[in-house]
Amino acid sequence: MEAVLAVLVGILFSVGAYLMMERSLIRLLFGLVLISNAASLAVFAAGRLTWGEPAIVPVGALAPDREIANALPQALVLTAIVIGFGLIAFALVLAERAFRWLGTVDTEAMRVAEPQPEGSGASAVKADAGRTA
Amino acid sequence: MTAPLVLPIVVPLGVTIACVLTGSRPALTRVVSVGGAALLFACAVVLMVRVLDHGIQAAQIGDWPAPFGITLVADPFAAIMVLVAGFMGLAVAVYGLVDIDADRERFGFHALYHALLAGICGAFLAGDLFNLYVWFEVMMIASFALLVLGSDREQLDGGVKYVAINLVSTIVFLTACGLTYGVAGTLNMAELHAALPDVENQGVVAAIGILLLVAFGIKAAVFPLFFWLPAAYHAPPVTVTAIFAALLTKVGVYALIRIDTLVFAAVADVLEPVLLVTALATMVVGVLGAAAQNEVRRILSFHIVSQIGYILLGLAMSTALGLAGAVFYLVHNIVAKTNLFLVSGAIRRLEASLELKSIGGLYATAPLLSVVFLVSALSLAGMPPLSGFWAKLLLLQASLAIEGYVLATAILAVGLVTLYSMTKIWLQAFWKPAPDASAHPAKPSLTARERAGLFGPMLALTAIIIAMGVAAQPFLDLAMVAATHLRDPAAYVTTVLGRP
Predict the structure, then answer these.
(1) Which of A29, A106, B79, B122 is deepest in the core (most CB within 10 A)?
(2) pLDDT tens-digit profile of B337-349?
(3) Mutate which of B174, B294, B297, B302 to test chain A, going by most A C-beta atoms within 10 A?
C-alpha cells in the first residue's frame, strides 16, 4: 500500500513541478496545490499505513490490544493541510491582485520591481532572476 | 519553570490580538505595539539571564514528556537570537511609528508585525522539527501580508516572487519532516540527534539533510536560491524591509545551523562540502550583485545575501572557532544591516529618492545621519574597531586554523568589495554635492517628533555596533559559549530528554 502511495506522490510532485515551471501565475499556483498535496501524502505514508484499525484504546485499558494506525502523522497532516489551505488562499488572492494591478499573469512580464536596465550589462543576471522567481 | 520559555512567544501573540482589538483607535494601537515590543525585549532578557545562570532551559508543554509532547528549548544560541529579535523588534517598532503611514496602520500593520515576531521567537525556541515548521509558517504568513500591505504595484510584483519561492521552500520542508519521521520515528530534535546515526540507510538520511538544506537555503537566501530577495526586499516601506533584513533570513540561517550541528550531525560530512561551496558562492555573487546596483536599498539587499555567505562559511568550517565566528557575525550583521536600512529610510525622507544619481549633499545637510551611516557601513565592511572587524577576524582565524587559504582569501576579498559598495553610497549620497537643487526645491525637513522616532533607534543600534567593537570580549565569550554548546549538543539532549 505504501508503494502505491509513493508512486502517487511521485506523480503529483512531477506534475506539480512541471506546472510550476510555466510562465503563467495561475499554472504556478495549480502546481503549488499539487505538490502541497503530494507533501501531505508523503507525511501520511511516512507513518506506515494500517488498514481498518482506528487508533482507539479500548475502555479501561492503558494500551491498545492490537496493532493500530499511527495517529501522529495524521495529526501532522491535518495541521499541514490547514496551513497549506491558508497559504494557497493567500496566494490566490495575491494572484488576483497582481493581475488587476499589473495587468498580467505572465511572470516574465512582471518587471515593475526589477525594471530592465537600459544597458545590457546586468540584464543577463536580471533575466535569470525573473525566470527563477 | 516554563514561563521564561513560553513568554517570548505568548507576549507577541497577545500583543497581536490587542492590536487587532484596538484597531479602531490608532493612537492606542501604537502604544500597545511599542509597549508590547518592550515587554518582549524584557522577556528575552529574562530568558537570556536564566540560560546564562542555570544552563540550557527546556519546557514540556502540557507536561507531556519529550519526545511525545511539544518541547521548547533555549540553549545559549537560541537565547541570544531571541534577545536580538526582541531588541530589533523594539527598535524597528519605534522607527515604524514615524515611517508607517496611516493607511497601512489601518490595514493592520502593528498586528502583523507582532505576529511576525511571535513566529520568529517560536522558531528560535522550537524543540522539534514539526514545531519549527509551524512557527516558520506563522512567520511566513505574517511576512507575506507585511510585504504586500498597501498594494503598491512594486510590492505586488516583488510579493508574487517572494510568495511563490517561499511556498516551494515550505513544501520541501514539510516533505523532509515526513521523510524524517518515516526513517526515525520521531521529530524531536534532541531525540533525532541520537536516532539518526542508527538509521540503517544513511543515504536516505543524507538525502533528507539535503532537502532541509534546500528548504532553509531558500529562506536564508543562499546561492543559487537567493533571487527572490533582491526582487522583493526593496519594495515595501523601510520599516518592513528593516525587520525582514534583521530577522527573516536569519531564521533560515538559524535553522541551518541547528540542523547541521544537532540533527544531521551524523551526515555532516555530506552536508558540509555542499555548505562550504554554497557559502563561498553566496558571498561572492551577493557582493558582485551589490556592486552592479545603483539604488541604496538594492545595494543593501544584495549585501544581505553576501553576508549570509559569511555566516554559513563559519558553520561549514564546523570548528568551535568557526561556529563562534558565525554566531558573532550573525548578531553583528543583524544590527549593522538593519541600521543601514533604517538610514536608507531617513535618506528617502530627506531626499525623496534612493537612486544614487538623484541624491547628494547629505553630509552637509544631515551630519548626524552621515555619522550613523559611516559607522554602520564601515562595520559591515569589517573596519576596526567596529563589530564587523571582530566578526571577520574570528572567521579569518577559523579558516587559517584549518588551513583554508581559499576561504581566507574570499573573506578578505569580499570584505574589500563590500567596502567598495559602501564607499559608493557614501560618495554619491553624502559627499557629492546635491545634483540639481532646482529639480526638487522643497526638500522636506523633519519635525522634532520624526527626528526622535527615526534617530532614537538608529543611535541605539550605532551604540551597539561601537560597543561590540571596542568592548568585544564579553560578546566574544558569549559567542564561544554558544559555539561550544552547538559543537557538543550532549547537554542539550540531556536537558530535553531527561537522559543522555
Answers:
(1) B79
(2) 999 999 998 888 8
(3) B174
pLDDT at residue B438 tops 70:
no
How close is the nearest chain A Cα to the Cα of B163, in Å? 7
pLDDT of A122 strictly over 60: no
Residue A71, chain B, CB below 8 Å: the answer is: no
CATH of the domain at A85: 1.10.287.3510
Report if residue A56 sits inside a domain. Answer: no
The torsion angle over the Cα atoms of residues B499, B259, B115 and B52, rounded to 10 degrees, is: 50
Cβ within 8 Å of residue B39, ≥6 positions away: B11, B15
What span, in angstroms and rounded, lies between the C-alpha atoms of B40 and B308?
A: 26
ipTM (interface predicted TM): 0.84
- Considering only CB atoms, A90 lies closest to which of B144, B174, B292, namely B144
Nearest CA in chain B to A16: B168
b/e per residue A74-92 (b: at least 16 CB within 10 A): eebbebbeebbeebeebbe
- Domain residues for A89? 2-51+69-132
Total domains present in chain A: 1
Closest CA to B95 of B489, B453, B473, B477: B453
From B64, B77, B94, B95, select the one nearest B2 (Cα to Cα).
B64
Per the CB < 8 Å rule, is B171 touching A39? yes
Provide the grid cell at B163. Answer: 510568495
Assess whether pLDDT exceeds 80 at residue B434.
no
Run of H or E including B57: strand B57-60
Whether B151 and A101 lie within 8 Å, measured CB to CB: yes
- A29 occurs within a structural domain: yes
For Cα atoms A93, A97, A103, give the angle at the middle one, nearest 5 degrees: 140
Looking at the predicted structure, is the pLDDT value of residue B305 above 70?
A: yes
Instruction: At B224, give phi and psi (nearest 5°).
Output: -95, 35
Domain presence at residue A58: no
Query: How many angstroms separate the first and last alpha carbons of chain B?
Result: 21
Cis peptide before B236 (omega within 30 of 0): no
Mean pLDDT of the B114-127 span: 94
Q: pTM for this one?
A: 0.91
- pLDDT tens profile B157-207: 888 888 888 999 999 999 999 999 989 888 999 999 888 888 888 888 999
Least confident of A111-120, B69-78, B449-458, B459-468: A111-120
Res A47 pLDDT > 90: no
Whether the per-residue pLDDT at B216 is higher than 90: the answer is yes
Q: Determine, yes or no, domain membership for A105.
A: yes
